[in-house]
């Protein structure tokens, strides 16, 4: 194979590859609504999630407490009479309490994470605004030196 043939083949192959290569975007025929960008979560959406987590925390804490007390009371009679049912109900109460704590911890985690995210976003916005204004001041300084 001559050098010229090699160059022709290589150039032809390079042209084929670049026509198929797509970086940093979805091909136009892949669907979607045509918008690109970062994940967006509006304040209203975050507030409703936080409110739902808080309401679930409050309501479930109250209701699960009633269920725990009722089941413990129900276990007392049969357990005192040495029926296996009493011990089984007591076991159910223990498991219920463990699962309740897990759910309540998850609700609290959601609420705490949303609060942290809100505060971090505000801090990021402040930092970006400061950085951009510093760049503008720097640009003004260069413009002053040029005599504008």
Report on the architecture of this protein:
The protein has 148 residues and is mostly helical. Helix 2 (43-80) packs antiparallel against helix 3. The protein has helices spanning 3-20, 43-80, 84-146. The longest helix has 63 residues, at 84-146. It starts with a helix and ends with a helix. The chain is built from three helices and no strands. The model has no long low-confidence stretch (mean pLDDT 77). It is elongated and about 100 Å long. It has a domain at 44-146.
Write a concise synopsis of the structure shown.
The relative contact order is 0.06.
Question: How is the secondary structure organized here?
Answer:
Blueprint: H1 3-20, H2 43-80, H3 84-146
Helix pairs in contact: 2-3
> Structural class of the secondary structure composition?
mainly alpha
Give, in order, the helices and strands. Answer: HHH
- Helices, by number, come to 3
Helix content: over 70%
The count of strands amounts to 0
Question: Which of globular, elongated, flat, extended, rod-shaped describes the shape?
Answer: elongated
Give the termini separation.
62 Å
Low-confidence stretches: none
């Amino acid at each position: 194979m001559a050098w010229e043939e090699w160059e022709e083949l290589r150039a032809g192959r390079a042209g084929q590859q670049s026509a198929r290569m797509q970086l940093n975007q979805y091909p136009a025929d892949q669907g979607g609504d045509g918008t690109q960008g970062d994940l967006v979560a509006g304040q209203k959406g975050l507030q409703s999630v936080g409110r739902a987590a808080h309401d679930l925390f409050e309501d479930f804490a109250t209701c699960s407490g009633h269920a725990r007390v009722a089941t413990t009371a129900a276990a007392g009679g049969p357990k005192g009479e040495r029926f296996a049912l009493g011990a089984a109900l007591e076991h159910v109460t223990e498991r219920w309490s463990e699962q309740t704590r897990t759910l309540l911890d998850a609700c609290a985690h959601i609420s705490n994470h949303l609060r942290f995210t809100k505060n971090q976003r505000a801090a990021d916005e402040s930092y970006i605004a400061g950085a951009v204004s510093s760049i503008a001041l720097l640009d003004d300084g260069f413009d002053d030196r040029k005599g504008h």
